[in-house]
Amino acid sequence: MRKPFKRAELFLSVSMLCAAWGVHSSAHAQGASVDAGPSSQGSQAEKPKNTAKSDELEEVIVTGTSIRGAPPVGSNVITVGREAIEATSVQSAQQLLKLVPAITGMGSAGQGGYGTFDSGSGDSPNIHGLGGVSSNSTLILIDGHRIPLTGIVRNLADPNILPPSVLDRLEVMPEGASSVYGSDAVAGVVNFVTRRGFDGFEANAQGGTGDSYHTYSGGFLGGKTWEGGSALLSYSYSYRSNLSQGERPYTLSNHLAAGGYNFGSFACAPATIQPRNTTSIYTYPYTGTPTSNAQFNAPCDSSRYSDLLPQEKRNSVMLKLEHEITDNLAAGVDILYSSRTNVLNIPMGSVTATVYGPGSANVSQINPFFVAPVGSTATAETVRFDASGLLGTTAQTASGADTFYAFGHLEYHIANNWLVTASTLIGTDRSYSNTIGGLCGSCALLALNGTVNQTGSTTAPPVPGTGISVSNLPLTLGNALDPFHPAASNLTSPAVRAQLIAAGTSQEANQGIEQFGLKTDGTLFAMPSGDVKLAGGVEYTTYSDRPQGTTSLNIGPTTTGSRFQTYHYTREVKSAFVETLLPLVGPTMNVPFVRKLELNLSGRYDGYNDFGSTTNPKFALNWQINDSLKVRGNVARSFVAPPMSTVGSNGLSMDTNYANANAYYGPFNVPLARYPAAALIPACATAVTVCTFNTTAVPGMIINGANPNLVPQTGRSWSGGMDFKPTFRPDLALSATYWHTELHGGVTAPIPALALNSTGFASLLTVYPNGATPAQVAAFAGYRPQVGILPSPIYFSYDFRNQNALNLWVEGIDAEIRYSPQLSWGSISSGVATTYKTRFDQQVGSGAPVFSVLNTTGFNSTFPSERFDLRADVGMQVARFAATAYVNYTGPSLHWSSTAINPVVVNAARVPVGGGDHIGSFTTVDAHLSYSPGAFLKGTQVFLDVTNLFDRNPPFVNRNSTTQGYGYDSFLASPIGRVFTVGVRGKF
Asked: What's the alpha-carbon Rg for the chain, to the nearest Å?
């Protein structure tokens, strides 16, 4: 439902239009070189040669402001320059982000999908761990403008589309910035600034090798400048091999040796069998001796066929053209294309089922290949079938993305240093994911016990409206699966084998962005304290998303039991903004202890066609005490628009369905005082205060996916800090910032364990004491497709759709010190950058308790909230030799999840207050060595990089998660280990 305009919003938008003529809400600025603060590690962009414009009018990209030639007021902008980029030999933007501790995931592998939970395998950087994939509160920019979104069931920006050689610097502003940029900038902004005005040619090539891992990349950058213009072309290719789970024993499913659990399926090829009413599990050949838990290791662990990291190939190219048409008119265009392909090996698959044998009362379900262990008289068994022996060891998921954008701008200079800029951005992204091979689990169940139910139930309700039989009775030699004999002597018919691999899926999404802007900025008038500057303008942006796919209904082969989905999401945004820089005190005023005092006021209005409008202001102040010390601060309000995929099209999306609840989460406790009807369920009759739901005794159903009732997620932030650059020690710089950020109404699907304690989400659970009737099931499911078979009876339903559920309060300190003296024999460069969180509180729904998850991982399904991250470096250069060492440190934390060995302790309100497993700190050392030959090879450099020099394994975490890591935390550590990289770089 669209929210009506408020008078204040209308007044602000009209005022903006009157104050300025339009807009490009990017961090473009023109002026002399911008001081990026003490965290700057590199130079500014190259300047075009022989330009007709003065330095004052030369364009410089500045993050966090729309005013030319002025750094953002009151802000901590963390900068990584070109020298640091070259010294770390990164192959992607994501690898570059590990240099900034404020960005969550400093220790991650930087390969494959990161934090997106999307089958398209895109990457999603996140500042301070604030927000999840549906409430991503970090805005990603390239050269100050937005880029096409990527993903199949997500709408996220992936900065890895850039060729690394075209990068000039990375700028991170970890604070609210919606007053300048609009949606997504609650935690802050990550801006990748590309090179400009480059004249010459560069080429690079490198190759790396590690334990069962290798990589290589290469590319070039060519540029030409002329009177009033320049052209630049950059291309890069990178290849990173897959890393198999079998190559890192600590990541296999069996963690018993490390003191954890065995997460294996207890399936071996051909199968393990467990006679009914016993706890003994037997492996082939089926003698009378059961196999112990500890014996289910590598020989019986199909996880060794899975990849920890996918093979990744990427081609990226960028063209930049700029030219001054007249003395006052200039034009430019940036064109980028990137293509990424990933191939992930996955196990063929396994399935667990009750199989009936001779003597069973289920006559038509008797499997003709039934085998009992020696000495067993059981007429039914639990069979855990591993298809790797019969069908091969691996299947594959092939995914990737093709991304394109063109950004053009036209600039006109008018009197009094005013500039009018018209800009347009057109971009597209095609993301895809195809599963090739793999076991059709429902087909295996049909061939094992004649149904698609693990228990072999013939009373479970079928999928309505499909016209598809969900039984395969009676079982015969021609339609049954033989799980008891190895591949060489297996009796399964060719027809059944063919059905077992009929499980392929295909998904694709085409996303687009079109943005048109008009902006003006310049000097209003001069005061004794300095020039009063103003910027403002308007934007019009449209987004589109067309996902489609064919997925299995889990009721048989996808050839006969699949669904095709296609949707079209659109969004239209009309925006206006204004920003002013007010110098309150200037150097010539000779005010004691106030060399300069600057105030920045900015505000932005955004009107959305699908949920209404929002207005976000920001107030920022710089107090320059003297030439050495500056104190700064800001207060801002920001927002995140709910992603189109979570709002859906008429409430439908690619992940919309209704299904058996146990396919999505485990058991949970229901308080009887809040849900008295639960006490009437037979299995809950003896319960006193709580009853455990989502078990075989109390099964239920859920709905998943989009929610058309979502509203914007709002954020509030403030920060205060200081920058110290002593005039008596110009090679020393210190910076420290205390920041506070809030996110209210973050979009997430709240798990029952938390939602049931919230007054706002108590209605998500409905109890059916006598079992749900067909009419109640139909009313709950509505128009959503069914996936799989529902249980019988159904005692509860739970609305597991996305909600404006998550409230976060996060605080901490970002600090950096750099010392880079020039000595008679060379130079030294050293520094330490840290992020230390002091608060990470969260709440799920109004009325629910607020609790701390500070320094934990696993409790939230997305990003961890580790307390302390640090990166230190020290390097020296002597003549043509240079060497740098880096130390990366993530502090110890707690593992809070259902797999913790030490259970998480919860209070009466069911929120965590203690317990969990200790996760050790993780320290790695990287090194960079380079040599520049000189003479006729001047401009050439050969280098050696070593990452994880001492080959440290990640700290153990008792976890077995495809998204969070196997035996380690994939957000905080990498399983790759030590990698040696040798390369050459030439400049001509």
From this structure: 30
**Residue 239 · residue 215 · CB < 8 Å:** yes
Closest CA to 713 of 663, 638, 763, 601: 638
User: What residues are paired with 671 via a beta bridge?
Assistant: 690
Q: What angle do CA 373, 376, 381 make, to 5 degrees?
A: 70
Q: What is the pLDDT of residue 56?
A: 38
Distances (CA, A) of 116 to 192, 228, 348: 20, 43, 24
Give the model's pLDDT for residue 51. 39
CA 187 and chain centroid, separation: 14
Strands (E) in 374-416, as ranges, are 380-386, 394-414
> Angle at Cα 424 formed by Cα 418 and Cα 427, nearest 5°?
150
**Euclidean distance between CA atoms 25 and 537, whole angstroms:** 8
Phi then psi for residue 156, to 5 deg, are: -135, 160
Measured CA to CA, the distance from residue 456 to residue 367 in angstroms comes to 12
User: What pLDDT score does 16 carry?
Assistant: 36
pLDDT in tens, 29-46: 323 333 333 334 333 345
pTM above 0.85, yes or no: yes
Q: pLDDT tens-digit profile of 558-604?
A: 777 788 889 999 999 999 999 999 999 999 999 999 999 999 999 99
* Lookup: tokens for 834: 């840290």
Backbone angles phi, psi at 457, to 5 degrees: -65, 130
From CA 521, how far away is CA 776, in angstroms rounded?
Answer: 60
Domains and CATH numbers, the chain: 11-16+19-243+311-343+400-433+508-644+712-745+805-987 (2.40.170.20), 249-310+344-399+434-506 (no CATH), 657-704+750-789 (no CATH)
Q: Rounded to an integer, what is the distance from CA 274 to the centroid of its chain?
A: 41
Number of H helices and number of E strands within the chain?
10, 50
CA 26/CA 144 separation, integer angstroms = 4
Residue ranges, the chain, pLDDT below 50: 1-45, 47-58, 464-469
| Angle at 641 (CA atoms; ends 640, 646), nearest 5 degrees | 120
Tokens of 283: 């492996």
Q: Give the C-alpha distances (Å, rounded to integers) separating 476 from 353, 406, 447, 486.
A: 17, 61, 9, 19
